[in-house]
Design a protein that fits this description.
By secondary structure, the protein is an alpha/beta fold. It has a single domain (2-197), classed as Hexapeptide repeat proteins (UDP N-Acetylglucosamine Acyltransferase, domain 1), CATH 2.160.10. The protein has helices at 151-159, 163-168, 177-189, and strands at 2-4, 11-12, 17-18, 23-25, 28-30, 35-36, 41-45, 49-51, 56-57, 62-66, 71-73, 78-79, 84-86, 89-90, 95-96, 101-102, 107-108, 113-114, 119-120, 125-126, 131-132, 137-139, 144-146, 196-197. It has a ten-stranded mixed sheet, with helices on one face. A seven-stranded parallel sheet has the order 2-5-8-11-14-17-20, with no helix packed on it. Strand 22 (137-139) and strand 23 form a beta hairpin. It starts with a strand and ends with a strand.
Length: 199
């Protein structure tokens, strides 16, 4: 299914294959020989998404851009089932395994591997040919790789990256943070009520 969102509609190369249950919304460009499988969602929420040539987006993966955080995925990259990419840049020949999460402002270098259920955190930079082990967290610039049992160390690095400020423009110390966050984000997402199906 393809949708026009905020006046922009998807541009899909004639050689790309899009499953009928995939959702492509807004300012999305999909290159030659890409495969987007069942249940995948590629949604440009005010910022562009570009997929190079021969990118594979597997079942139930989510790719989301915002006005301040576009997404670019380089040629010959595989986005695994249930993986999530939000506002990040992914290099060429990258393997993002099942359940991986790549957050806003992150950059994953070419020929890197982010293995099953691993996380590349907000504003993290992975150099080319990096490997994030199964379930581990990459955080910072330059990236530090930490096992999930090292939560206090991960939080110490992550806290300064300021997720609510960087993604939502809200100070973490705001007394009613979640009220403001959900109202602001909900208002933005409500713009989908005016989407038009174009396929």
């Amino acid at each position: 299914m393809e949708f026009q969102h905020l006046g922009a509609r998807p541009r899909i190369h004639r050689d790309a294959v899009i499953a009928p249950t995939a959702v492509i919304s807004g300012d999305v460009e999909i290159g030659a020989d890409c495969q987007v499988l069942h249940g995948a969602v590629i949604t440009a929420e005010g910022g562009p998404i570009t997929l190079g040539a021969s990118v594979i987006v597997m079942e139930n993966a989510l790719i989301r851009a915002s006005a301040t955080h576009p997404v670019h995925i380089g040629d010959h990259t595989l986005v695994g089932p249930m993986a999530s990419i939000s506002g990040a840049t992914i290099g060429e020949e990258v393997f993002l395994a099942t359940g991986t999460r790549v957050f806003n402002g992150a950059r994953v270098g070419e020929r890197s591997e982010v293995r099953i259920n691993a996380v590349v955190h907000l504003r993290t930079v992975l150099p080319a040919e990096s490997v994030v082990p199964i379930g581990w967290v990459a955080v910072g610039d330059p990236a530090q790789l930490l096992s999930p049992d090292r939560h206090e160390e991960i939080w110490a690095l992550q806290k300064d990256l300021d997720f609510p400020g960087y993604v939502f423009g809200l100070d973490r110390q705001t007394p009613d943070l979640m009220v403001q966050l959900t109202e602001r984000y909900g208002s933005s997402l409500a713009r989908h009520s005016r989407d038009e199906r174009v396929d």
